[in-house]
């Protein structure tokens, strides 16, 4: 059981072994033992149980901090996933910054043009997001840039759409 930042084991048997692997006498029976040598928290175990794809950005960050033996390739993949999750909420703002000028501009040409433009921009954003993630996960660009690439590009382009609206 996890209590006060430490694991407490109840009703346990501690068995000692000789160097050759043979038992070194009968096991010691301990009713309650605090295990200060175990540094894993319940959160760490839960992160191990969950599928990596279902972890939040905070859980991925915790996983990266506690797992020192992860290969650099897997570490980069997880960092890209973490940054992609952090960038996701900003997509709403970017869509608004680009969508309003497009809606105002295409309003003169008809609703169909606005819908087609929105669908095309969605696919462009999605493809840029996939490209950024692939480049980041394969080490061609930094994990930060891999997760934020589409958002940064659309953020840079949005003032042009706003200026065009005026």
Summarize this entry quickly.
This protein is mainly alpha-helical and 166 residues long.
- Our count of helices gives 5
Largest sheet: 3 strands, antiparallel
> What gap, in angstroms, lies between the N and C termini?
63 Å
Across the major sheet, the strand order is: 1-2-3
SSE ordering:
EEEHHHHH
Point out poorly predicted stretches.
none
| Quaternary structure annotation | single chain
Principal-axis shape equals elongated
Report strand %: 5-15%
SS-based structural class? mainly alpha
Q: How many beta-strand runs? A: 3
Count of separate structural domains: 2
Average of pLDDT = 86
In helices, the fraction of residues equals 55-70%
Radius of gyration: 26 Å
Could you please describe the fold and organization of this structure?
The chain contains five helices and three strands. With 166 residues, the chain is mainly alpha-helical. It folds into two domains: 2-38, no CATH class; 45-165, no CATH class. It has a three-stranded antiparallel β-sheet, with no helix packed on it. Helix 3 packs parallel to helix 5 and helix 4 (111-137) packs antiparallel against helix 5. The chain is elongated. The mean pLDDT is 86.
